[in-house]
Amino acid sequence: MYRFVLRRLLSGVLLLFVITTVAYLLLYAGGGDIARRIVGPTASQAQVTLKASQLGLDRPLVVQYWDWLTHALAGDLGRSWFNGQLVATGVSSRVSVTLSLVLGATIIAAVISVVIAVLAAVRRGWVDRVVQFVGVLGFAIPGFLIALGLVSLFALNLKWFKATGYVPITTSFGGWAATVTLPIIALSIGCIASVVQQVRGSLIDALRQDYVRTLRARGLSFNRVVYRHVLRNAGGPALAVLAVQFIGLLGGAVIVEQIFALPGLGQIAVAATSQGDIPVVMGVVVATAAIVVIVNLIIDLAQGWLNPKVRLS
Amino acid sequence: MFRSKRMAAVIAAVALGLTACGGGGAAAPQDQSSQTLTLGALLAPKTFAANQSEFANLSPFYQAVYDTLIRMKPDGSLVPMLAKDWKYNADKTVLTLTLRDDVKFSDGTPFNADSAKQNLERFKAGTSPDAQFLAALKTAKAVDATTLELTLSAPDPAFLNYLSKDASFMQSPASFGNADIATKPVGSGPYVLDTAATVTGTSYSYHRNPNYWDKGLVHYDNLVLNVYGDQTSLLNAIKSGQLNAANTADNNTLTEIQAAGYKVNPLQLNWAGLILFDRAGTTNPALKDVRVRQALNYAFDTKAMLQSIGQGYGELTTQVFPPSSAAYDKSLDSRYAYNPAKAKELLAQAGYASGLTLKLPSSALMGNTLPALITQQLKDVGITAEFTDTGNNFIADLLAPKYGVSYMILEQQSDWQLINMKISPTAPWNPYKYEDPKVDELINKIHVGSTDEQTAAAKELNKYIVEQAWFAPWYRPQSSFVTDARTKVEVQTGNAYPFIWSFSPAS
Fold it and tell me: Which residues are bridge partners to B408 per DSSP?
């Protein structure tokens, strides 16, 4: 088991290195005249040169990258070129917002999907058909449209929730819930739609297995068979889908954060990318890549726990 | 039965959880008492370092923490601030300011002439886009603690104006070397930034400066500036009453905003239309002929343009000087009333009866309608418009200069700023560096003349520029600043955002 974890960790670190290197090179290639963009189109050439020199942009690319990498390994991700904030501070303060959304959406999606999928797989018939139809609908409607609809109904008309802004959970739980509920719902609907399909399929397959019949014949109740055995067997594929969905949600959060003006990673990523603020973009890349690596590791471990064969493979 | 009960319980629990969240939301305090002013903004400051600061839309972020030497009132007049009074010598090259002696920065450092001197020198040498505001400043000298003497290389009629803007933001000299000055400003302003409650780039929270020297300028205990990178989220924040006031980027949404109980405070900051950069005909010989440039002025149905592009919010004009300027002449607003026949006639006189081709730049920001309208109206008088998409390089290409003519929305500043921005041979918006002896002579009169001479020369310059058709302005679009019922504001002449002390509780 230790070797399994170690192997996964090492490949995660390698992945982080590759992602950050490629990202740095791509960003630099597409960066253009960043110093000019920072000081504005009417600034003099002397001001542009001064800014470029202040930022170290006049050094060769390899030197800049090496400088970034060695500092990053020591935990220093530099400062934003546009607002001077420490990247580590800016990114870490926003990770909690994005994780609130993405984890919240994943947990809600997991719970609701399993409930609905069990209903559909066990009951079949019209229940199953309705679930399938609604699932396709939920999958087809873009997240931002759902977000806009939710804002319009629950924030602007009913005034149950806040339309924009974010209150940290440490300041007020009620305030936090008021600001993240609609974004979480907007994010989770698409996720629920695809996880339900996956879990439903796995459950139907599992319910047809011989061991189900055997267990029922030994006198176990249907509920016990479904919740103790069938769900556990169907859990592996469901977890894999959830992991993929989680990573997809990180992308979906970008748009939702913009609509709800939430200070998350998505918002900072959009602002920094459009400005060409490379240190901040790199900070976001490192944070999201690290999240993805950690989530994959957790999913691998969970699958190993659910199914010992995975550990051996 | 048991199965469905259990599932129903799970569903109910989830639903209850969500409803509980909703309850929390409804109960959450709407931090909007008269003691907190919550403003919406479209842009966030890049840094709080005073020598890299900017103005216009970003002015409230800085004005909350940094005082200026001079204060500009909403009508554009100048009144004392950190400088109690000031006077020029006879040839307007030495400005002597008498400073207050009762002001302290938030770190306890006292404000004096030496700190003012250092701040001005740093701004001039810094990387603020407005660093050229202090181009005329040759030396700054602290004569004593409260006397500051500024020597200019040449008279600058806009210099006092600049001292009411970012050029004279006063930061504590003790903080000049602070590594975190970009996020932790140290000024003497009416508010102090609460860095713990601030999310850089998104939401800025300030508290009243308890030691502020002029209590009369501080109308709120707390100030919150929220930044909306997305138009929809700004509109939603306004419609749901989360903001006391905000500027809007789009007049299309005004009806919705008014329906939500907000008042629209109109202001005119810009003019929109064509800039005829290439008056010497370097890239297109036709543009050298004043008749062709005048024809371009006659060719546009500006009323229809204002209606279709600006939704009717704005006033027609054919001059670049604003109504607040001494150079403004109301009759010039209709100097080139829409007359396609006259445009064709002028083109024929100039030798282009059989047609003419103009290359113009386009950008995604212009949308599709604008290039189509321009193309159609030019076609009606026999001019073929050829648009090239400049991608993200629109402004850079204009200033390079790569185009003889372009659509543009430009700011209308005070006379001397306006001249230096778009008329003088060194102006960035005169990229071909076009010179005309008569214009130079008038600029010189405005530069060194007495107040009466300046006014007369400015009027003459404006008329001459319109007659010579250096530009083809269409209209002055209305910008809108919206306030809720609890908030009163006076919009600022020449600035996109009202100044921070112009806000007060309505009751």
Answer: B273
Residue A204, token pair as written in the block: 């139907």
Residue A177 CB contacts under 8 Å (≥ 6 apart), including other chains: B20, B21, B22, B24, B25
For residue A118, the chain B residues in CB contact (below 8 A) are: 7
What one-character DSSP code corresponds to residue B327?
T
For residue range B305-320, what is the model confidence (pLDDT) as tens digits? Answer: 999 888 899 999 999 9
Non-local CB neighbours of B98 within 8 Å, separated by 6+ positions: B83, B84, B85, B86, B146, B147
Output the CA–CA distances (angstroms, integers) from residue B204 to B224, B225, B311, in the order listed.
6, 5, 33
Rounded Cα distance, B76 and B475, in Å = 22
Q: Where are the beta strands (DSSP E) in B23-136?
A: 36-41, 70-72, 78-80, 83-88, 94-99
| ipTM of model | 0.71
Q: Do B199 and A38 touch (CB under 8 A)?
A: no
> Strands, E, within A54-96: which ranges?
none
* B12 CB neighbour count, 10 Å cutoff: 10
Mean pLDDT of B26-53: 75
| B131/A160 CB distance under 8 A | no
CA dihedral B319, B324, B330, B336 (to 10 degrees): 10
pLDDT digits (tens, 9 = 90+) for A141-190: 887 888 889 988 998 888 888 888 888 888 888 888 889 999 999 989 88
Residue B25 has pLDDT above 50, yes or no: no
A70, burial (CB in 10 Å: exposed 0-12, middle 13-18, buried 19+)? exposed
Q: Which residues contact A285 (CB under 8 A, 6 or more apart)?
A: A19, A20, A23
Interface test mutation site (partner B, options A93, A164, A221, max chain B beta carbons within 10 A)? A164
CA B478 to chain centre: 13
Nearest to A102 by CA among A310, A256, A309: A256
pLDDT: which is higher, B32 or B197: B197
Task: Using an 8 Å CB-CB cutoff, list chain A residues near B45.
Answer: 83
